[in-house]
Design a protein that fits this description.
Length: 245
């Protein structure tokens, strides 16, 4: 069994992003409704945050609800939203005690008012904190985000504030929801699916991808440590040759 001791603390990824997948299958295997899978998924979220804090990871991004997830049955959406509200209620004290700063990425205007209210409160309570930055992607999709950034830049061009020739990667970065956050070095996806599902497409250009068969509710501290160890065994070349590194 792996432990924190197996990790080289001097070569930790600054930013880890996770596509939490498999809650539905985990529940089905137990003959339970999908909501039961999500409830247990929330427990895995807690364990993941705990180990990220313990290791000193600076940024952790969790894909909690995609733009496409709005197409799920109404009942499931409602149960996910109420889980979100109850999790914020039960966890906000512990987030603050652990110096965790919350950031939300996504089109939050589409979320129910009750969820928006809770989110605004926890954002206000934690924005000054200096430990782990926990980024929760809610009603998020990468194509939405890049489209929104493009609209802003196009408007700036129309107003003469920016010339088309001045558009560069840095400018685009500044208008993404992740502005100011370093790109993830490691992207984890659970449940044995090999997809990115419209998540951080721009930001993962050079990320290491890690896929595990573990269903999200079974993901625990050891699973996270295994992913970090795997990451540390990779040679990150960024287009160069091994000899140039
Ligand atoms: C994917 O499993 C999971 C989701 C779409 C929701 C993720 C939400 C949580 C883990 C709950 C709480 C989150 C926070 C931040 C408190 P799936 O339903 O797609 O599973 P399946 O592919 O097996 O059907």
């Amino acid at each position: 069994m792996v432990s924190v001791k197996d990790i080289d603390k001097s070569r930790l990824p600054k930013h880890v992003a996770i596509i939490m997948d498999g809650n539905g299958r985990w529940a089905r295997e137990r003959g339970m409704p999908r909501a039961y899978g999500h409830q247990n998924g929330a427990k895995a979220v807690r364990a993941t945050i705990e180990i990220a804090v313990e290791l000193g990871i600076e940024y952790l991004t969790l894909y909690a609800f995609s733009t496409e997830n709005w197409n799920r049955p109404k009942l499931e959406i409602e149960s996910l939203m109420s889980l979100l509200v109850s999790t914020i209620d039960s966890e906000s004290k512990s987030l603050i005690e652990n110096n965790i700063r919350i950031k939300i990425i996504g089109d939050t205007s589409t979320l129910p008012q009750s969820v928006q209210k809770k989110l605004n409160k926890v954002l206000e309570q934690t924005q000054h904190l200096t430990g782990l930055t926990l980024i929760v992607a809610l009603s998020y999709s990468s194509k939405w985000e890049i489209t929104e950034a493009t609209k802003i830049i196009a408007q700036q061009c129309l107003e003469g504030k920016v010339k088309a020739t001045e558009i560069n990667q840095e400018l685009l970065n500044q208008h993404l929801t992740t502005a100011g956050i370093p790109d993830p070095e490691l992207l984890i996806r659970t449940s044995g699916e090999f997809r990115i599902s419209n998540f951080l497409l721009w930001q993962i250009a050079y990320s290491e991808l890690y896929f595990t068969k573990t269903l999200w509710p079974d993901f625990n501290k050891a699973s996270f440590i295994e992913a970090i160890i795997d990451f540390q065994q990779r040679e990150r070349r960024f287009g160069k040759t091994s000899e140039q590194l």
